[in-house]
Fold these 4 entries.
Entry 1:
Amino acid sequence: MSHWTDAHCHLQEQFLRGDDASLAVVSETLSRAYEGGVDRVVVIGTDLTTSRQALDISALEGPVEIYATVGLHPHDARQDIGPVLELAREQHPKLVGIGECGLDYYYEHSPRDDQRRAFAAQISLAHELDLALVIHARDAFDDLTDILSSEGVPERTVIHCFTGTPDDATNCLALGCDISISGVVTFKNAELLREAVRMVPLDRLHVETDSPFLAPVPYRGTANEPAYVTVVGEFVAELRGERFVDVREATSANTARLFRFPAR
């Protein structure tokens, strides 16, 4: 019987520059996660610095298995993507995915053209390296669908922190993408998201924290951490009318398939 898996977290946000003292804080965070029933996490890169830190964190030893991704977030898409691509091509042994990448037309911290170019480049990289693709999508599902259709959806692709409508979920599933659910599903104003979660097939569903952001109710307003993925998973199970143990087993297996974790 498996524990919970946090399919998407940003532990590098909890320390300064990856010094030993900060890594100790990460270890403490992961110890709390394990005590709460979490035994695997994926630390997500969003630019060159955080991608390198994610790989460094993945080397930590302890009861929680740690994996990493390398990517350029749409907020940072105006940056030179070349070094990020080069880092990924080094094929670190704990590297399991490309991203978080995609489109964010809500904040638009980078011009849309830069976002689209960076996204297309990372889709191509996921194909090249045969790695999972981790997508960030906010207020941009039409363009997201167009680019994925044009570039070809990698065989293993997930929409992280999905916050779209049931129709958005249907379209993403039809493209071959999995859906990952964060603590947003517990928020009072997330009824459309809850409708979407009810209709996603269990074998296409993942749970995540996106920590240190988006802590679920009753922790909303505090720093999120991987231990709280159990809150998300149990809320999703109740929402769907399923046993939490079945959701735990399914989502952990789905994330292991998505990222090709080694057998244990």
Entry 2:
Amino acid sequence: MPKVKKTKKKARTKRNARASFEPSFFERVGAIVSRYTLASVAGVVVILVGFVAILWAGGYFGVLAERAGRLANAAAISAGFEIRKVTLVGREKAAPDEVSNALGPLLGMSTLALDLEAARARIERLGWVKSASVTRLLPDTVNISIREREPAAVWQMSGRLKLIDDGGAVIRDVGAYEYASLPLIVGAGAPEAASSLLKSLGAHPLIRQQTAALIRVAERRWNLRLRNGLDVKLPEIGFDKALNTLSTLEKAQHILDQNLEYIDLRDPERLVLRRRGEQVSDGARQ
């Protein structure tokens, strides 16, 4: 009999253990609700992503952004931020209509809606303009300040003449008799190559005033053709020093007014002069 009692106790223990591991009714219901909830959320996300993709492909976001921009612009204008005046400072040679066209229609638009950087970039694409700034003067004024290029030479290329500054930037096309007092630069790519020489000539006004042309020789060095027909042969490297020497000789001896065919400054240790009518060896012709 004792053995039977022990067996029943063990059976009850096993049933209780199995019952403790089986989920209750409420737990089963909660699991089912959770699965359906997650599935519903995932479905909503998929639908939203698809909807956004359709709007993007159809350009609706751009339309909405444009409408929002118009509304913001109208609100700013209603608040008094309307462009009523545009001021321009620093303009001397650039045509006013060119600046106006670069800016586009400003009057009547919102002061706050103006893209200052884009406006500045458009103005700086004008040939005469070296740099520009565009600022708002709230509530109703836009101020443009420009710094213009200084003409330094006329570049001749393929039968056309272009005005350039000392950095080689093209300002505009010119006629045959415009800016005749400026030196003429001849050759492909010459403006960029002549930039350093033009800046050096700026430090020697006596030489620059008498220079009629800058002639590129073998795409590696320069000759100065003066207005009296005198050629000055400059070295490939170190033309600053050569111009200093020439400037010193001009101040001391008025060498540029003498009856010379050329002055050869290519050798820093030896100055070569050739008077008109003298014979010259083949080695000195280059």
Entry 3:
Amino acid sequence: MIYFKEYETDKGLIVAMCDEELLGRVLADGRRELDLKMYSGFYKGELVTEDSARSRISMEELYTANVVGKRSVRIFIEKGLAQESDVLTIQDIPFIHIFRIV
């Protein structure tokens, strides 16, 4: 399952997605840190299936996305919203940040 949350802005949607088992963890590699404990409220929206998450995102409405975890990142790549080269990892956990300039 995936936590899925949307924030509406005047420039489009901000989407936050995080694989369920990662929420509450702090990932660090010495250069950077991804705090999914302190910022769990940002990601903790509705708990949905992969198919549900996949059907909810589209490039037309997307302004920014913060996506953490193998399943969540895979959905963005499959939908053509990100490429493998966009993926960063921390403690072997993939994540992407997408920013559209509109």
Entry 4:
Amino acid sequence: MKDQNCAYCMGGELLDKFGIYICDLSVSQLILFKEQSKLGRVIVAYKDHVSEIVNISVEERNAFMDDVCRAANAVHKAFNPDKVNYGAYGDTGCHLHMHIVPKYNGGDEWGGVFQMNPGKVYLSDAEYADMIERIKSAL
């Protein structure tokens, strides 16, 4: 099931506003968040347009959480954060997804909750490509 207004369902220009597709995982897709004030921030978005984790089977939920863990492991290997925050929101875009937000001791917002889109750090295409390669190598 796809929603024509959903960036996670449709990709393309909708996704380009905030993210870059990295790859498919078992039941989801991995997306690099363009705003990189938290180096290595990614999103794991479920393959179908469902709003809540309770809307999928136990098997699909377990597979989704395995994808989240796989992505988090890759972020740890690629960027060595001191802590990773996990955020599951979706008030405006009701598509099941999880933000994986690396935090660095002494860095931006250390010790506090991360801002959803602080708009502070954007990178060049080459820098995004390098990050994606690092994440893929660590998967």
